[in-house]
Amino acid sequence: MFQNFRHSLAWLHTWFGLVLGYVLIATFFFGSLSVFDREIDRWAIPETRFAPQPMPSFDQRLKPIFAQMKPDEHELELARDRVGGPLPQTLPLMNWSAYTTHRDPVLAMYAEFAVTNNPDDPHDHVHGYITIDPRNGRQLPHDQLKIGSEFFYPMHYGLHLEWKNLGIWIVGFAAMVMLVALVSGIVMHRKILREMFTFRPGRTAQRGTLDLHNLTGVVALPFHFVFALSGLTIFASIYLPVGGTMLERQQMEFLAAEERARGLEPEPSGIAAPLASVDAMVVEAKRRWAERGMPGEVGYLYVNHVGDASSYVSVYRAGSDRVALVGQAIHFSGVTGRVVHEEPAPPAAYSVNEFLTGLHLQHFEHWLLRWFYVLGGLAGCVCIATGFIFFVEKRKRSHAKEGVRGARWVDSLAVTAVTGMLIATASILLMNRLLPAEFAGRAAWEEGAFWSAWLGALLHALVRGAPVERARISPAWREQAWVFAALAFGAAIANGVTTGDWLWITITTRNWPVAGLDLALLVAGSVAIVAARRLRRRETGIDRDPAVAENTLEVPEAGNA
Amino acid sequence: MAHHITTGQVVSRIAAGVLGGYTFIWGFTTLTIALALAARRSYGEAQTTAYLLAFLLFLAAFLWAFAAKRVAVVWAVLGGGGALMTAIAWLMTRGA
Fold first, then answer.
1. How many folded domains does chain B comprise?
2. Per the CB < 8 Å rule, is B66 touching A2?
3. N or C: which terminus of chain B carries fewer CB neighbours within 10 A?
4. Do A104 and A156 form a contact (C-beta atoms < 8 A)?
5. Would residue A501 be called left, alpha or beta, if left means φ above 0 and alpha means ψ between -120 and 50 degrees?
6. CA nearest B71: which of A54, A1, A3?
């Protein structure tokens, strides 16, 4: 189809990179924010601004709270739809679990309840969720949105398009295209080392943009490759659901055999029996971890078949001190409290997978590395954004001559994807601080602020894009940069006003989760102001980009279409 | 370069790369598991191994789909090969 291998890869790089770039930049940006999702949660829910806590006593603190947990109302509604009628008065309790990490002051608690009257699915169930302050057991209000872990993080991998996992599929395809873009980018630029150290911001906009695109793409290349790949493997069972379809029987047999090998009962016996002390099991699990030379804290507790004679308790280790995401689980009989099974070292394939997963999800404790993740992710955003701009810069003059609107459309969507995304992000944070704490349905308002701000940015970018048709810069970039700066500063100020946690106080009291987000908002807002002022100069100055001919001579392969 | 390419050619290449590539890694994954089960190896390990390789394979298949001279060959290898591997895996795991 194309002249040669390099030409076809250049075509792929340009067009797939452009179309999926709009998805990828959101994936990179919200992924970067998700690195500090727990810290963003602290900022968004002021009553959780206290130090991380270990897993509290199960017997004393958690058990009475678990005993009062109820199914989520929304899930009950969905279950009624599935069953096509009313549910039984009480749904039998199946299991309890609690989860925490070294960055969590609060504890997330979950319960599962069986839906017994669904003839289509004997394993149908609903969940109950609560979050507590583990120091006193106080339950946090249900409708407080954890903006970091419940909004930005799902945005990163699923775009909040939950229908049939559509968002996860789109992000997965975008991740595939990221891999394609990296490989094709290398093939297009054979002089990779030289280009890595080439940055000529003073030359033309097109030249400097391309240099920055190559720089950010090459410097963080291993990071981007590994993250796109591990993101795909994390959701491999969604992308390649062989175990749920063609090989369902084989997978079921495997899972049942695994349970049997562990000595754990997959189904309850129906005979009631009390639960032994879980605290004693935790002590024993910690002793066994220490014996293996890896003393640690509990990250995840799971009690299955609660109140049944076949109940068991699984104690998982928190992975704060290693990359691989592995729990070294120890399973106990819930009735006798004795160890039933200790998970052995995993086989090689699992180890590789756990390493890749852990590398991506970073449950480990290493703050410097955590910041490198943010920088890597933001480098990806810069790489994609400069890719958009290069696409427009390369074409806008010829499109202006031919009267074609392509460059204008791409530019308006790029404005929406870059500054519009920042505006949406700052809007949800500002809305979070402006709504009164007791405001009913505040989570919906916060999400509404995010989406409506983004939609507003799209409309604004479309309306203001006309100058691109005359080969000029769209003022939408500058105007949205100002809006973002105002929102970002506004959010940091609103935080101080509503909580008293002004930046100088949070820094002096070393309240880093809150200080960190305030600082990030102020830095990002300042960068936006600098960018807006420079854009102003470019817009008003004479168009000083006469170097189109020179560029096409020097880099004929850098975007052929 | 771009001026000789028709929309039909582009659509055909994209379909061959995306659908052919997907069919190929579906066949690869199911056949890897089927062969492992036939050799009395663990389902879980075989599936994890296949998953770790599948997306790299998709990447190679996708790039090749655009680089190859003739799109018919791409369809034959990726689509045909994927279907063949899936069929073998299906036959192998049907009775056992």
1. 1
2. yes
3. C
4. no
5. beta
6. A1
Contacts of A382 (CB under 8 A, 6+ apart): A212, A216
Residue B33 lies in a domain: yes
Buried b (16+ CB within 10 A) or exposed e, B5-14: eeeeeeebbb
- The phi-psi region of residue B29 (left if phi > 0; otherwise alpha if psi is between -120 and 50; otherwise beta) is alpha
- The pLDDT score that the predictor gives to residue B10 is 85
Cβ of B43 within 8 Å of Cβ of A353? The answer is no
Q: What 3-state class would DSSP assign to A318?
A: coil
- The Cα of B76 is separated from the nearest Cα of chain A by a number of Å equal to 17
A184 touches chain B (CB under 8 A): yes
3-state secondary structure of A122: coil
In this structure, are residues A132 and A63 in contact, taking their beta carbons and an 8 Å threshold? Answer: no
* Buried b / exposed e along A352-372 (16+ C-beta atoms within 10 A): bbbbbbbbbebbbeeeeeeee
Q: What DSSP letter does each residue of A456-502 carry, written as one string? A: HHHHHHHHTTHHHHTT---HHHHHHHHHHHHHHHHHHHHHHHHHS--
A274-320 confidence digits (pLDDT tens): 999 999 999 999 999 999 999 999 999 999 999 999 999 999 999 88
Please state the separation of Cα A440 from the chain's center in Å.
Answer: 27
Closest-CA distance of chain B to residue A195, Å: 23
CA gap A163, A150 in Å, rounded = 17
* CA–CA gap between residue B71 and residue A290 (Å, rounded): 59
Average pLDDT in chain B: 92
For residue B3, tell me if it sits in a domain. Answer: no
The answer to whether the beta carbons of residues A113 and A71 sit under 8 Å apart is yes
Q: What angle do CA A471, A476, A480 make, to 5 degrees?
A: 150
A254 at the B interface (CB within 8 A)? yes
Q: Do the domain assignments include residue B71?
A: yes
**Which residue did the predictor score with more confidence, A283 or A264?**
A283
- Axis crossing angle, helix A421-434 with helix A442-463, rounded to the nearest 10: 150
Determine the average pLDDT of the residues in A47-70.
95
Sign of the alpha-carbon torsion through A301, A305, A306, A309: negative
Say what the pLDDT of residue A554 is. 37
pLDDT higher than 70, residue A539? yes
Average pLDDT over residues A91-117: 95
**Coil, strand or helix at B1:** coil
Structure tokens at A367: 């703050």
pLDDT in tens, B52-74: 999 999 999 999 998 888 999 99
Of B24, B33, B27, B20, which Cα lies nearest the Cα of B93?
B33
Say what the pLDDT of residue A190 is. Answer: 67
Q: What is the ipTM of this complex?
A: 0.94
For residue range A422-438, what is the model confidence (pLDDT) as tens digits? 999 999 999 999 999 88
pLDDT at A558 over 50: no
The full set of domain ranges for chain A reads 5-45+153-232+364-554, 52-143+274-334
Cβ atoms within 10 Å of B91's Cβ, excluding its own: 10
For every residue of A427-454, DSSP letters joined together read: HHHHHHHHS-TT-TTHHHHHHHHHHHHH
Q: Identity (one letter) of the amino acid at A469?
A: E
Q: Given a cut of 90, is residue A360 above it in pLDDT?
A: yes
- Asked if the structure places residue B52 within a domain, the reply is yes
Q: Say yes or no for a CB contact (<8 Å) between A180 and B62.
A: yes
Query: What local confidence, expressed as pLDDT, does residue B20 receive?
Result: 97
A176: chain B residues, CB-CB within 8 Å? 55, 58-59, 62
